[in-house]
Amino acid sequence: MDDVLPRYGTATLADVLPSLLHALGVPPGAAERGRPPAFALPPARAAVLLLVDGLGHELLRAHAADAPVLAGLADAGPLTVGFPSTTPISLTSLGTGLPPGAHGTLGLRLRVDGELMDVLSWSAGRRDLRESLPPERVQPAPTVLERAAAAGVEVTSVGPAEFRTSGLTRSGLRGGDYRGVHALGDLAAEILAGAHGPGPRLVYSYHADLDKVGHLYGPGSEPWRLQLRMVDALLGTVLDGLPTGTLLAVTGDHGMVTVDRLVDADDDPALADGVALLGGDPRARHVYTRPGAAADVLAAWRSVLGADATVVSREQAVADGWFGPVEDRVADRIGDVVAALHGTAAVVRSQAEPFLSSLPGQHGSFTTAEQLVPLLVHTA
C-alpha cells in the first residue's frame, strides 16, 4: 500500500457539499469565493448525498461484483479524506467544508481544554462533555448545511435516531431538519421523502453498518461483502424512487485495512515514559507529553515503531500539511508527537482501549486504502 497526503483544497471530502450547493444554484461561501467548485456537477433541483461509513475507493473496486449498482455509477473521484482518516474528522470536514486544521476536530480522541475527549461519544471516560465543552464552541464555524438553509434550501439530514443530538452532529453537521432512522427501510424512505417537493432541496444521509462490520470482521471479509450487497440494494431502492431533476452523490468517510502488526502502548514502558495523555486511534496517534519531554518521547516512539510509522513533532506535522492550514486556536489539540502508521501496523492500548484494540479492521492513516474514497454521481 502506498501513502498519499490529503489533497486539501482540490479534491477532498470537504469539497463535496459545497459542490452540491453550487449545483443547486447557491452562491459560494467565503471559503469557495474566487475559485470554481472542485467538482463540475450538473445543475439540479434537488441533491442527495449518501455517506457510507467505511466505503473506501480501493475496497469498492476490489469488490465491485458485490455492488453492481454502486460500481455502475460514474465516479468523479477518488477523493482524499484528510488526516486522520477517521469518522469524526471526515464527517466534520464534510459538514463544514473545511480541512481538519481549520475545524479543529483532529483525532478520534484529542485534548480539548485539558480533557482527553472521545469525539464520537463527546465524553471523557463516563462523563458527558456536551455541557462543559459545548460542540458549538469546540467547532464554531458554520456548517454547509446551515449555509444552505440560510440560502433558502430545504435541508434534511437522515441518520441514526440516537445521533440527533450527539456532540458530533451538533459540532460538524448541525443545520436543517434531522430525521432519525433505525434501519435500511426507513433510511431509504426518509431519503426519498426529503428529495420530493419543490426545490431547491438538499438531503444528507448517513449509513454506519459497513464500517461496523469491517471493524469487527475485517474489510473484504464475508460479512463485510454481504453488508456491501445490502448497501448496494439500498442504493438501488433509492435510485428507483428519486424524482426527476435530482442529483445523487455517494461517498465514504475513509477506507480500512486489516491490521496484523500490533504494538501495545500499555505494555511498553518506552512508549509511556514522558507521556501525559495518549490520544488518536490505533492508526494515527496523538502523543501529549509532559513538560520538557517532547524530544525524548519523539526519539523513543521513532525507535520502537521504526519502519512501521512516520513519527514527527507537532511542528513538523503542521509544516508538512498533514492537517491542512492549522488555526492557532486548535494547534494545541495536536499531539506534541504525532504517529502515522504504515502498512498493516497499529499502536493499540490493551488496557485503556480494550475493545478498540481487539478489532482487526482499522483506519486513520495515510495509506491509499484508508485515504481514498469514491465520489459516485447520478442524475435522475
Describe the structure using short key phrases.
single chain; 380 residues; alpha/beta; Alkaline Phosphatase, subunit A; Gyrase A, domain 2; 2 domains; seven-stranded mixed beta sheet; four-stranded antiparallel beta sheet; 16 helices; globular; Alkaline_phosphatase_core_sf; Nucleotide pyrophosphatase/phosphodiesterase family protein
**Given the helix and strand composition, which structural class is it?**
alpha/beta
> Number of folding domains?
2
Share of helix among residues?
25-40%
Radius of gyration: 20 Å
Question: Which CATH class of the largest domain applies here?
Answer: Alpha Beta
Task: Quickly count the helices.
Answer: 16
* N-C termini distance: 36 Å
CATH level-4 homologous superfamily of the largest domain: Alkaline Phosphatase, subunit A
CATH architect. name of the largest domain: 3-Layer(aba) Sandwich
Q: What does the main sheet amount to?
A: 7 strands, mixed
The strand line-up of the biggest sheet is 2-21-11-1-10-8-9
Mean pLDDT: 96
Share of residues in strands? 15-25%
For the secondary structure, the number of strands is 21
User: Tell me, what's the shape?
Assistant: globular
Low-confidence stretches: none
